[in-house]
């Protein structure tokens, strides 16, 4: 079974031998691949829609994993019982959707040992939310699969340091480990700031707003981090 680099990177953050809950499973590629590699003991594959659940059942049947994967239709974490899964993976959704799923069933989320999350957008807000709601960042990864660039975040229960806005935007663990794609990540975040400032700069009212000042401050912080990285590479 072949999976793309995004899913394989997510899979590599899932602990060996765990029970995995894959929320928004779609075709159940992640849990089936992990089972085929004997990396997890069993899985719950959940999705809110009937179509993806049927696609998941087809994949499970194709690879003969029906005894090890339970496909369940339902909203978010409501397909689980507390403590049923050691690791919860939520991938391919916006950060706001991931946050809503976790907030809607905090007891279930907190009962897992690890969250592995891959937001399609808004990773900074997801990091900030996790760190202010009793999780600490356990691992971070980047995947450059042109034209897509993915951020993957693993979090476990515990108190987190007070990260700056720039650290949340880039990824504090990516910064600490000097990830090979850190330069591209910094440039992406800076480009986003420049675009926002350019758009807001057309309005006098927007230029006078607190939001404009916050983005200017973030841009300045990111430039410091970028210059620091350039110095390190010399």
**What is the assembly state of the chains in this entry?**
single chain
Summarize the biggest pleated sheet: 7 strands, mixed
Uncertain runs? none
Estimate percent helicity: 40-55%
Structural class: alpha/beta
The CATH class of the largest domain is identified as: Alpha Beta
Q: Give the rounded overall mean pLDDT.
A: 96
- Fill in the CATH topology of the largest domain: Rossmann fold
End-to-end gap: 42 Å
Beta-strand percent range: 15-25%
The H/E string reads HEHEHEEHHEHEEHHHHH
CATH superfamily of the largest domain: Vaccinia Virus protein VP39
Shape label: elongated
Cα-based radius of gyration, to the nearest Å: 19 Å
CATH architecture of the largest domain: 3-Layer(aba) Sandwich
- Total number of strands: 7
Number of helix segments? 11
The order of strands across the largest sheet is 3-2-1-4-5-7-6
Total individual domains: 2
Pfam families: TrmK
Organism: Phascolarctobacterium succinatutens CAG:287
Protein name: SAM-dependent methyltransferase
GO molecular function, one term: tRNA (adenine(22)-N1)-methyltransferase activity
């Amino acid at each position: 079974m072949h999976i793309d680099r995004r899913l394989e990177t997510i899979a590599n953050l899932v602990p060996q031998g765990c029970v995995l809950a894959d929320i928004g499973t779609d075709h159940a590629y992640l849990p089936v691949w992990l089972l085929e590699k004997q990396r997890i003991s069993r899985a719950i594959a959940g999705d809110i829609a009937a179509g993806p659940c049927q696609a998941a059942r087809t994949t499970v049947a194709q690879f003969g994993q029906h005894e090890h994967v339970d496909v369940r239709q339902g909203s978010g974490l409501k397909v689980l019982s507390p403590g049923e899964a050691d690791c919860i993976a939520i991938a391919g959704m916006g950060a706001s959707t991931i946050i809503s799923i976790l907030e809607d069933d905090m007891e279930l989320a907190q009962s897992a040992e690890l969250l592995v999350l891959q937001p399609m957008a808004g990773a900074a807000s997801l990091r900030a939310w996790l760190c202010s709601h009793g999780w600490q960042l356990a691992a971070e990864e980047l995947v450059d699969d042109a034209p897509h660039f993915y951020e993957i975040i693993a979090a476990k229960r515990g108190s987190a340091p007070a990260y700056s806005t720039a650290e949340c935007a880039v990824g504090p663990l990516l910064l600490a480990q000097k990830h090979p794609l850190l330069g591209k990540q910094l440039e992406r975040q800076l480009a986003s700031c420049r675009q926002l400032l350019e758009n807001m700069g057309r309005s006098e009212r927007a230029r006078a707003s607190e939001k404009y000042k916050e983005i200017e401050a973030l841009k300045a912080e990111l430039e410091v981090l970028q210059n620091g990285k350039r110095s390190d590479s010399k």
